[in-house]
Amino acid sequence: MSDLIDGSVPLARGTTLGEQVTEALRVNVTDGSWPVGAMLPSESSLAQSLQVSRTVIREAVSRLKAEGLLSSQQGRGAFVVSDRPQMGFSIAKQDVESLRKLTQILELRMGLEIEAAALAAERADADAHKEINAAAQAFADSTGSGAEGVESGVAADIRFHRAINDATGNDYYLGLFNYLGASLRETILAGRLKAVERGGESREAVQEHLDVANAILAGDADAARECMRNHLKLSGARLLGNLKGAES
Fold first, then answer.
1. DSSP string, 125-163
2. Which tens digit of pLDDT belongs to each residue from 101-132?
């Protein structure tokens, strides 16, 4: 089955060589290059194609077994048993602490929340409007209150975005946002604290929240998309700038 690797598989960027090789093998499974039931190339063939040791290959195969993608048959080798990992989506703590990975997570958040804002504009009822407005106002009230108000401001910020995702009426939007919000909360808090230490927070975020809220209340899906896109681009830049400043 060595023809399943057409030449060499490009290694994905990762923290360790083992993680890079695991991702390279995972891609071959999930994109159908190695279909369910296929036997993987031998350890030596994979090691030669990827230019790593057989030990690294064994580590990667073990990880994919734990994810439910591969299974071994005594004396025959590893086989693909599923193209869908049984393990749930996850973001490791060290990913959030890496500025490069954090940038990617923020891009993922944009993909989720821009369309969520549009759906909220189309679907939000009176109760959802009330919660979105209340959260936007709570965020406005917290900004400018110094370090003591930072935590309440972060809570209000997450409350605002959660309310928008809830207003979509789609449980998966809300579930994914809750996961991302929990993953990013401490990082957002650290960024806002650094902003306060350097002389104050930007009031621009308050207006950005109000713009999003007003577009949703007006039922204007296109405006809601654009306002959310603008807000997430600017807030992401502020967060990364604060954290980069802290590193330097």
1. -HHHHHHHHHHHHHHHHHTTS-GGGHHHHHHHHHHHHHH
2. 999 999 999 999 999 999 999 999 999 999 99
Q: Which two tokens stand for residue 99?
A: 């500025």
Residue type for 232, please?
L
Q: What is the pTM of this model?
A: 0.72
Task: Dump pLDDT digits (tens) for 15-37.
Answer: 688 888 998 999 999 899 999 99
Q: What is the 3-state secondary structure (H, E, C) of 67-84?
A: CCCEEEECCCEEEECCCC
Q: DSSP of 216-231, one letter per residue?
A: HHTT-HHHHHHHHHHH
d(CA 160, CA 214): 13
DSSP 86: S
Amino acid letter, residue 21? V
Domains present along the chain, CATH in parentheses: 2-80 (1.10.10.10), 93-247 (1.20.120.530)
User: Which residues lie closer than 8 Å to 139 by C-beta, 6 or more apart?
Assistant: 153, 156, 157, 159, 160, 205, 206, 209
Residues 6+ apart with CB under 8 A from 76: 39
The first and second tokens of residue 83, run together, are 């193209």
Residue with tokens 């110094």: 146
